[in-house]
Amino acid sequence: MSYYKQSVPPVRDSRLKIGDSYAGNACDLVNCGRDGCLLQKGRGFWQANACQMALTLMMATTVENSVIVMHAPGGCGALMHSLSAQAAKGKGVRGKTPAAIPWLSTNLTEADVIGGGERKLRETIEYADREFRPEIIFVVVTCAPSIIGDDAEEVARQARSRVSADVVSLHCPGFRSRVVASAYDTFYHGIMRGLDLQPIPRADFLPLVQGPQAEAAEKKYLFQKSRTVNVWNATSIGAQDEQEVERLLTALGLKVRFFAEYSSREELRQVSEAALNVSMCNVHDDYMLKYLAEKFAVPYVIAGMPIGFRHTREWLLQIARHFGMEKEAAALAGHEEKLAREAIAPFLERVKGKTVLLCGGVVRVGAEATTLAELGFNVLGIRAYHYDEGAEPVFSDVAENLADTPVAVSNQLFEMTHQIKSLKPDLVISHNGTQGYIAKLGVPAIQLFSTDGAFFAYNGIYQILRRIVFEFKNTSYRDRLSRHIRLPYKQSYFEGDAFKYIINNST
Ligand code: SF4
User: Fold this and answer.
1) 149, 245: one domain
2) Disulfide engineering: 23 pairs with which of 54, 430, 456, 499, CB 3.0-4.6 Å?
């Protein structure tokens, strides 16, 4: 059965060849991913891992006029307090109403875990519909109901005939996947199964009455559609990145729409009315883009992230190729590169030869590492949170351009701490949420991404370098903090290999 027909989405662990434990170089990583040896790798010791529900919620909270129903014990919803504010801010900067998203929890107790929580879920969905009158109710199915066998899917199916909202179930129990990127598939699986993804006659458009005017109107519509691209965003991609991408694609004469975050139900119904779907990251949306190609015959482009001069040019060219506008895209990239190179020239002198360690999402760290190397940095190491076959093009590029650079697949903080202590980089560029740990080590660091700035294309490269130069200028907070912090590690831990706990499960 096609994945798309399953009521519960697949996890990346079964859909793709993945890995979360590796140390070596990019070339071996690509080969290890291809031949499956990555699947055999694990650790003798794990510090902690992340729950895919968090990322699914990050996406769901951005959808307009929706309500979240957590089918969970109370604790799983703790993240909603910060996510709700974050999503409201994201809506505001995109010109939408910055309303906080209402959320409810079935608050499963010990008695519910024994007797089942289906009744509570049904009542909570109906209450959410009555009280908030949303367009969409997201039912978030977590570990506890998945373990006890609550048929949340059947409850959601029955609820659809009793409530006015669309009910979208998101199955994201943390225990099902070692790779949090499964969360993206979970969100898209819910969207594709729970919502209409094509316009509804009379609700979204008035069918044309036959005649010459209708013919002209249809031709005009089809022309506009043939120039419309859907660009797929993600929580790590801020409004400034969207503006930069829109600026460039608009310069090529394309109409740009962003999905699926910060969209409404009505906007999502327009998804199928486009000439091309464009990804901004190989590992975010391949599941959805392949579905849209299969279901609505909308082709797609997945061409890495538009980070740095070379990757941005390639990303633009691949999109332009679809429209037969490669020459225009090359000219645009040439013009933009010239302007950006002039703008970053004062920064380059100050960062030349600086050593850097990069940690975070697999596509972003790969693209960022080759970009910084091209600008004169000395890349000491790349540490990707996970690896799957979607990242192969990016890491093949890393293998070609940074063949001797150590590459690890790790989301373990103790391994990152070890690397920082042993490699002693001038700068760490790392995933959000790790900045506090790095500050305690007294090392300059910037975030790998932030929704408050630009990281993509020409504006992005300028802002990244400006951030780095600023970070080098002012290190007093980190210097002083590191002098007063006692780390929870014995000195002997730092004497061995940073990745000594990685093991091969097949031996
Ligand atoms: S791992 Fe399970 S129990 Fe923990 S927050 Fe995630 S869904 Fe809830």
Assistant:
1) no
2) 499
